[in-house]
Design brief:
Pfam families: Fasciclin
Distance between the termini: 36 Å
Strand order of the largest sheet: 2-1-7-6-5-4-3
Structural class: alpha+beta
Number of domains: 1
Shape: globular
Helix content: 25-40%
GO biological process, one term: cell adhesion
GO molecular function: cell adhesion molecule binding
Largest sheet: 7 strands, mixed
Low-confidence stretches: none
Order of helices and strands: HHHEHHEHEEEEE
Mean pLDDT: 96
Number of helices: 6
GO cellular component, one term: extracellular matrix
Strand content: 25-35%
CATH topology: FAS1 domain
Protein name: Beta-Ig-H3/fasciclin
Radius of gyration: 14 Å
Length: 135
């Protein structure tokens, strides 16, 4: 089966509503549909539940802040679970370093375990995570 691009895959999975809303607000839909490869550590929708709506609304009103948060979840290049095991840090598209570690077979990005690894896309790979990474 032909794999779909990062955006279409995220839409089809239905677990990344707020993340996709942010990509749309930042005008990134086209970029992550056509460019790449990228590795996205994608927070599932439940990651946003503990955050008050007002805080999320404020983030969407401050696009620079929102861009900083989103870019902290994206790395240029395609990194599968195997690749992640071989790296201790990756540099995000925003220029920050993400720390990686393995514990009991699970890979952690910062202190967040990867829930669903290696979601293949035509222009990269998605690893779903249960928390929002904050630079």
């Amino acid at each position: 089966m032909e794999s779909k691009d990062l955006i279409q895959t995220a839409k089809d999975m239905g677990e990344f509503t707020t993340l996709l809303k942010a990509a749309k607000a930042l005008d990134l839909m086209e970029k992550y549909s056509t460019e790449g490869p990228f590795t996205i550590f994608a927070p599932v929708e439940s990651a946003f539940e503990p955050i008050p709506d007002s805080v999320i609304d404020d983030a969407f009103e401050d696009l620079d802040y929102l861009r900083d948060i989103i870019s902290y979840h994206i790395v240029e290049g395609k990194y599968s679970t195997e690749d992640l095991r071989e790296n201790t840090t990756l540099t995000t598209t925003g220029g920050n370093k993400l720390r990686l570690r393995e514990n009991e077979g699970k890979i952690f990005v910062e202190n967040t375990p990867i829930l669903k690894p290696d979601i293949e896309c035509s222009n990269g790979i998605i690893h779903s995570i249960g928390d929002i990474l904050v630079p």
